[in-house]
């Protein structure tokens, strides 16, 4: 078998083979660590830039959810428009005990008109 100058055809002993494998693994881990650390430095700079811009004030929260009185569940869906509110004021907090007849939410008046027209 002919050998090229300076390059043997393959490692001759198991020890040489082990050294080559360990060297490749160490080089791969080093390269992985180097590439993994690089994006972190860039994200820290972008966080500093983003934090200098003041956040806009939140005036309306639109969410989906449900109200669970004992014995029935009332679904609360998204309003028909972005500025419409299904619940104008929530008068109880999570974990509060309520009893029959206690006012816990205030609906906008347009919803009351619609709900009365549906049931009539």
Detail the topology: elements first, then pairings.
Elements: H1 14-51, E1 65-67, E2 74-76, E3 89-90, E4 105-106, H2 109-119
Antiparallel strand pairs: 1-2, 3-4
Q: What does this molecule look like?
A:
This protein has two helices and four strands. The protein has a two-stranded antiparallel sheet. A two-stranded antiparallel ribbon has the order 3-4. It is mainly α.
Entry keywords:
single chain, 120 residues, mainly alpha, two-stranded antiparallel sheet, 2 helices, 4 strands
Count of alpha and pi helical runs: 2
Main β-sheet description? 2 strands, antiparallel
N-to-C span = 100 Å
Q: How would you classify the helix and strand content by structural class?
A: mainly alpha
Order of adjacent strands in the largest pleated sheet = 1-2
Question: Compute the gyration radius: what is it?
Answer: 34 Å
What best-fitting shape do the alpha-carbon axes yield? elongated
Number of strands: 4
**Mean pLDDT value:** 71
- Portion of residues in beta strands equals 5-15%
Helix content: 40-55%
Low-confidence sequence ranges: none
Series of H and E elements: HEEEEH
């Amino acid at each position: 078998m002919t050998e090229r100058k300076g390059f043997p055809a393959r490692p001759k002993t198991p020890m040489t083979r082990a050294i080559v494998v360990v060297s490749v693994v160490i080089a791969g881990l080093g390269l992985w660590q180097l590439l993994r650390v690089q994006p972190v430095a860039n994200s820290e700079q972008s966080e500093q830039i983003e934090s200098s811009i003041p956040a806009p004030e939140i005036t309306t929260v639109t969410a989906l959810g449900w109200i669970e009185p004992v014995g029935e569940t009332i679904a609360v869906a998204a309003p028909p428009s972005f500025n419409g509110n299904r619940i104008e004021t929530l008068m109880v907090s999570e974990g509060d005990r309520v009893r029959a007849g206690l006012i816990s939410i205030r609906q906008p008046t347009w919803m009351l008109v619609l709900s009365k027209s549906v049931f009539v």
